[in-house]
From TrEMBL:
<dbReference type="GO" id="GO:0006047">
    <property type="term" value="P:UDP-N-acetylglucosamine metabolic process"/>
</dbReference>
<comment type="function">
    <text>Catalyzes the first step in hexosamine metabolism, converting fructose-6P into glucosamine-6P using glutamine as a nitrogen source.</text>
</comment>
<protein>
    <recommendedName>
        <fullName>Glutamine--fructose-6-phosphate aminotransferase [isomerizing]</fullName>
        <ecNumber>2.6.1.16</ecNumber>
    </recommendedName>
</protein>
<keyword id="KW-0963">Cytoplasm</keyword>
<keyword id="KW-0808">Transferase</keyword>
<dbReference type="GO" id="GO:0006002">
    <property type="term" value="P:fructose 6-phosphate metabolic process"/>
</dbReference>
<feature type="domain" description="SIS">
    <location>
        <begin position="211"/>
        <end position="350"/>
    </location>
</feature>
<dbReference type="GO" id="GO:0006487">
    <property type="term" value="P:protein N-linked glycosylation"/>
</dbReference>
<keyword id="KW-0315">Glutamine amidotransferase</keyword>
<keyword id="KW-0032">Aminotransferase</keyword>
<dbReference type="GO" id="GO:0004360">
    <property type="term" value="F:glutamine-fructose-6-phosphate transaminase (isomerizing) activity"/>
</dbReference>
<keyword id="KW-0614">Plasmid</keyword>
<dbReference type="GO" id="GO:0005737">
    <property type="term" value="C:cytoplasm"/>
</dbReference>
<feature type="domain" description="SIS">
    <location>
        <begin position="36"/>
        <end position="179"/>
    </location>
</feature>
<dbReference type="GO" id="GO:0097367">
    <property type="term" value="F:carbohydrate derivative binding"/>
</dbReference>
<keyword id="KW-0677">Repeat</keyword>
Amino acid sequence: GKGEYDHFMLKEISEQPTSIAQAIEGRIDPRSGTIDLERFERGTFEDIDEVQFVACGTSYHAALYGSTALNQVGISSTALLANEYSVAAPPIDDSTLVVAVTQSGETADTLNALRSAAAAGAKTMTVTNVIGSTASRVADETLLIRAGPEIGVAATKTFSSQALMLVLLARRVAADQTGEVRTDRRSLLEAADSMPESIETLLEQSQAASVASRYRDSQAYFFIGRGLGYSVALEGALKFKEITYEHAEGFASGELKHGPLALVTPETPLFAVFTGTEDEKTLKNAAEAQTRGAPVIAVCPPGHEAIEIADDHLAIPETDATLAGLLANVQLQLVSYYAATLLDRPIDKPRNLAKSVTVE
Ligand code: M6R
């Protein structure tokens, strides 16, 4: 049941310290720098030249997080919408790993893409929350995210576990490929190890409820970010529209000036996600929106330069740059939740949506 919580969504947001702890349990050792994900049947990823992700919705945003993390460590990777895959699949060969990211393991679009990749000769894997799901039966390998059951239609704790697992997978693939462990691995693993504590702190101190209330009568809500923060901006907007029924959109920070800026007014608050990747540029982009009257809410660590210009601040504890997006996402989950509460939305079962989408 929901226990002390009004909604499963809030319960599941609040469970993230535990779900993340479960996800990494026994899989990382910050002291030795070891990442031990699973006994993958294939043993090693040294023969993999490219990783393609296929996924839908929130899982697609986690996939984008993963593909960005792979590109950052020098492995060529793309994230593709599973429902576009059949019409626009990039070329595949036996050095391509196709990873289906799917919480349920039952999403029809994602299963189709996975099956067609397997038929075209790719190596396949699924990153899923459900042991024995169809995706896990179809794929050569399964990486479980161990988030525990998620009841709310809005995916929350499964996103953070997916994104974290994909970051670890990225490091593992890179290490198998180059035979070298990156020198920054220890700091990443230390940050992963203290992620449950960081989320706990964030949940205790979050100003999300008052931010949601301050901007409750706005016309539209925009979210921007760069690099890993871009996928978080997209996810922030999806969550917001899904449960509040308000217009929300996510953009790459640098894209704002290429069109979306025309939508910006004093009635369109802009959430700017700062994850340590070219933050000064994102800050400039946010300032351009602010000049047009949009209130800017900076999602960033305390002491960040964005706080000086921002109208509001949602604090994320200091962490490794590769994982900062996970913390920013928790703040955005809370903002959506509180905004939807103020509007009296059903939250756990938004209209027109289903938890598992088993039709094409
Ligand atoms: O089970 P899956 O991860 O494959 O589901 C994919 C999407 O339908 C899902 O992530 C959806 O976007 C979320 N429930 C939205 O919060």
